[in-house]
Amino acid sequence: MLQYNIKADNVEVTPAVREYIEKKVDKIERYFPEGTNATAMVNLKALNHSQTKVEITIPMKNLVLRAEERHDELYAAVDLIIGKLERQIRKYKTKINRKFRDREGMGIAFASAEQVTQTSNDAENSYTDEDDEDLTIVRTKQFELKPMDEEEAVLQMNMLGHNFFVFTDAESNETNIVYKRKDGTYGLIETSS
User: Fold this and answer.
1) Residue (of 89, 171, 68, 162) closest to 120 by Cα position
2) Of 80, 108, 136, at which residue does a domain stop?
3) CA nearest 5: which of 40, 37, 50?
4) Is residue 5 in a domain?
5) Is 105 helix (H, G, I), strand (E, B) or coil?
6) d(Cα 84, Cα 68) in Å, to the nearest integer?
7) Domain CATH for 72
């Protein structure tokens, strides 16, 4: 069952807006396993008096769904973001099923794929000053590393919309990093103790 945490910045969250968001986000709940409890964190922000930015993050036990959209109309932005989340889920489900089809016969549905993903948090670029001596860390985040292989790490990175992803390699148990290169390919940084 989804709970909602709706925050707004320069946008009024009327009962109609809240009801519309909840009704739309509830549509993706059908992809979750029965009895799943999650909180949909919804951030609304008015930009330049003409656009609204909507961001929805749904952290689950071992998976984070996240998307954001900007649009002139709040309701249109919500519709577009729900489409993005559904595409993420379908893409993820297809890849997981394909990967494990041989290993587990019929394959794994999205609901049982929690074992092969990890909860991750945003990493933000905050480096704006060219003076190396004046580096200031403006945000610190912590997350638990879950064992997975490189393909699963790339999949999770793409679902989150990040350029890199830190994970524990399931075979070597070392902390590794996958990243997206400028040419659209992927790179892997392997660490060793």
Assistant:
1) 162
2) 108
3) 40
4) yes
5) coil
6) 8
7) 3.30.160.100
Rg (Cα) of the chain, in Å, rounded? 18
Label residues 58-74 b or e (16+ Cβ within 10 Å = b): bbbebbbbbbbbebeeb
Q: Which domain holds residue 103?
A: 1-108
Better-scored residue on pLDDT, 68 or 94: 68
CB atoms within 10 A of CB 117: 22
Q: Is this model's pTM higher than 0.85 or not?
A: no
Q: What is the mean pLDDT of residues 152-165?
A: 87
Query: Is the separation of the CB atoms in 37 and 3 below 8 Å?
Result: yes
CB count, 10 Å around CB of 108? 19
Query: Which contiguous run of DSSP H or E holds residue 168?
Result: strand 164-169
Give 64's strand partners: 59
Residues 78 and 36 in one domain: yes
Say what the pLDDT of residue 120 is: 34
Residue 113 lies in a domain: no
Which helix (H) or strand (E) segment is 4 a member of? strand 2-9
Q: Are 131 and 51 within one domain? A: no
In degrees, rounded to 5, the angle at the alpha carbon of residue 109 between the alpha carbons of residues 103 and 111 is 125
